[in-house]
Amino acid sequence: MRKAVFGALVGAALATGAVLVPADAYACGGCFGPPPPPSEQPSIVTDHRMVFSVSQGQTTLYDQIKYTGNPASFAWVLPIVGEVKVGLSSDVMFGVLDRNTQTTIQAPPLNCPPRPSDCNNRNAFGAAPSADGSSSGGGTGVDVLKSEVVGPYETVQLRSTDPNALINWLNENKFVIQEDSKPVIAQYVKEHFDFLALKLAPGQNVKSMRPVSITTQGASPVLPLRMVAAGTGATVGITLWVVAEGRYETQNFPFFRVETDEIAWDWAAQKSNYTDLRKAKTDASGGRAWEIESSIALGKDTLSQQIQYGGGGIGGSSSGGAQPEDFGGYAPIKDGQGQVTKTARQVYEEDMKTLLGSISGSSIRLTRIRADLSHAALTEDLVISASKDQAVLTPYRQLTKEIGEPLCPVWDGCTQVGTAPRSEAIAKGRQSEDTASFTCKTSPKSSFPSVLGLGALASFLGLVVVRARKKS
Question: pLDDT digit string (tens) for 162-177?
């Protein structure tokens, strides 16, 4: 692996896992780079996104990497268990998982008073309606277990029993290890973790960066949050999807769910108090609790087809910069001379085999877990395990609880004359119905008698005009 100057280390981690960053975040999951120049701001991680695919035979972490800056300064390191397999994925896959599981709040029904039921049969005067009626370390104390190029990345897997030797190796390869991170690395070495280091290959740019997958043998979904602590601010948001045979939850961290009957819709603000409730539960846990947002059943074929066509099929791309050789949101792998070594379809098919192939059956459970962790909570690794409760948790929330009232139309007969809070609109509508009922009762049901003189007829029509003016 060639030496290069690295400005930032995106260090995330898991026993087969890592941290990932959403499209609008400045990536840096464990920053070990040199201080930025005076004209630049230091990197602060604000949010991460990751996926675990868990089966009895293997565990795969997906990491969505986004980075801003000089591509030669990008590098990423995470603890691993044994030798791992590194693969490529796509942003489309993350987008599909997000769309399937994101919490959707549906406001309560308006329950406004309806337009009078007979308005379709009459106008204000009871007439008919008009017509217009909607490698090796070389004696350094560090063993290079494996090195390979995966798409745009150069990767190396390292092992050492001496944390000082490992830190020296990283420093020699231009990873600037901060003092407060050295004890963290030393602890992982003591716990017999190996490490994966990854960087962009020479000549690649940040637009070439793609999500990566890291697969280890056995069911071991552990996220080393201690590694995540480097480079984060006071709070870091983490979204984790678990693709497995059943529903998963946190094992060594508290968790909660915001129940639908807790959520209220504020009609004045035109939003719910969902985020406030989530924050209150998080704060009550000291910034340690994880929310189980949703857990749904989904067919493997359905999910793989959504991922394939989520980027618009052949020629589609999540970044909008698709090439004719792309397949869905996947791009081919090319060598240094620009020759295709693996087609986009092959990359897609390998990714689906990694994501879904080791899970038995024709369907999967897709669980979404979310946390806004305080920096103080990043002192132990996250362990997730199968939940005792395997009930489906829908992401769709139809609310019934309200704060205030919606504005509703006020009806005067069949004409809308304004808006008012619902209870007031209902009351005014009743008054209008009473008036309309009285008017209809005073109207003769039969035709005028033949003996009615022209003067009497004129008087009757005048009475109707007077009443109409009083109403207006």
Answer: 999 988 887 777 666 7
Distance CA 256, CA 176 (A): 38
What pTM, to 2 d.p., does this model score?
0.74
- The whole-angstrom separation of Cα 202 and Cα 2 is 9
pLDDT tens digits for 77-99?
A: 888 888 899 999 999 999 999 99
- Categorize the per-residue pLDDT at 132 as very low, low, confident or very high, splitting at 50, 70 and 90: very low
Average pLDDT of every residue of the chain = 76
**Residue 35 binned pLDDT confidence (cut-offs 50, 70, 90):** very low
Confirm if 390 and 274 have CB atoms less than 8 A apart: no
Inter-CA distances, 444 with 106, 441, 447, 449, 460, Å? 49, 8, 7, 11, 11
Identify which of 45, 88, 80 has the alpha carbon closest to the alpha carbon of residue 331.
Answer: 88
End-to-end CA distance of the chain: 86
Amino acid at the residue 344: A
Angle at 152 between CA 204 and CA 168, to 5 degrees: 90
* Percentage of the chain exceeding pLDDT 70: 72
What would the two tokens of residue 260 be? 């639908």
CA dist 115 → 16, 133, 319, 426 (Å): 60, 13, 47, 11
pLDDT, residue 224, reads 80
Nearest Cα neighbor of 93 from 403, 305, 258 is: 305
Cα separation, 289 vs 362, whole angstroms? 32
Section 181-189 average pLDDT: 88
DSSP 3-state of 120: helix
Q: How many CB atoms lie within 10 A of CB 76?
A: 28
Q: How far is CA 427 from the centre of its chain?
A: 43
| Pairing relationship of beta strands 58-63 and 45-54 according to DSSP bridges | antiparallel
How many CB atoms within 10 Å of residue 454?
7
| 3-state SS record for 153-200 | EEEEEEECCCHHHHHHHHHHCCCCCCHHHHHHHHHHHHCCCEEEEEEE
* More confident of the two residues 382 and 13: 382
Taking every pair of C-alpha atoms in the chain, what is the biggest distance, in angstroms? 125
Task: Name the CA dihedral angle for 178, 184, 188, 191, rounded to a multiple of 10 degrees.
Answer: 150
Can you state the percent helix, strand and coil of the chain, rounding each to 5? 25, 30, 45
Q: How far is it, in rounded angstroms, from Cα 121 to Cα 115?
A: 12
Q: How far is CA 110 from CA 149, 159, 400, 405, in A?
A: 58, 62, 10, 8
In the structure, what pLDDT confidence band is assigned to residue 434 with cuts at 50, 70 and 90?
low
